[in-house]
From TrEMBL:
This is DfrA. One of its GO terms (molecular function) is deaminase activity. Belongs to the RutC family. PANTHER family: 2-IMINOBUTANOATE/2-IMINOPROPANOATE DEAMINASE RIDA, PROTEIN HMF1-RELATED. It comes from Siansivirga zeaxanthinifaciens CC-SAMT-1. CDD domains: YjgF_YER057c_UK114_family (cd00448). InterPro entries: RidA, RutC-like_sf, YjgF/YER057c/UK114. GO terms for cellular component: cytosol. Pfam families: Ribonuc_L-PSP.
Length: 126
């Protein structure tokens, strides 16, 4: 059975999907982009600030499911410019312990929703 996870501390979905779905002990988050949940505005001043907003949005969704980044077992990062990888990786990495960091892929894509520069989703287990 699946349980829909939602929180006002992360952006509301902009399409026919939910912030996350919990099935059993496994949480699947939708991709998060840099929307400030309080204002609904994009946070695109620079790639580090944008990535921080994405990670804060993911943190809020994880917390709504009773989890933290320690529960994350898999991450998917989509970026519009591989030249931003180092900056994105620096911010992303600050949310994880190197010894217990999740598996991950990082993929450059042609375009992301709302023309953002980075989108991240995770899978976590309780």
């Amino acid at each position: 059975m699946k349980k829909i996870i939602t929180t006002p501390k992360a952006p509301a979905p902009i399409g026919p999907y939910n912030q996350a779905v919990l099935t059993g002990n496994t949480l699947y988050t939708s991709g998060q982009i840099a929307i400030n949940p309080e204002t609904g505005e994009l946070v695109l001043s620079d790639i580090k600030t944008e990535t921080t907003q994405v990670m804060q949005n993911l943190k809020a969704v994880l917390e709504a499911a009773g989890m933290t980044f320690e529960n994350v077992i898999k991450s998917s990062i989509f970026i519009s410019n591989m030249d931003d990888f180092t900056s994105i990786n620096e911010i992303y990495g600050s949310y994880f312990n190197d010894e217990t960091a999740p598996a991950r892929e990082t993929v450059q894509v042609a375009r992301l929703p709302k023309n953002v520069n980075v989108e991240i989703s995770v899978i976590a287990i309780k």
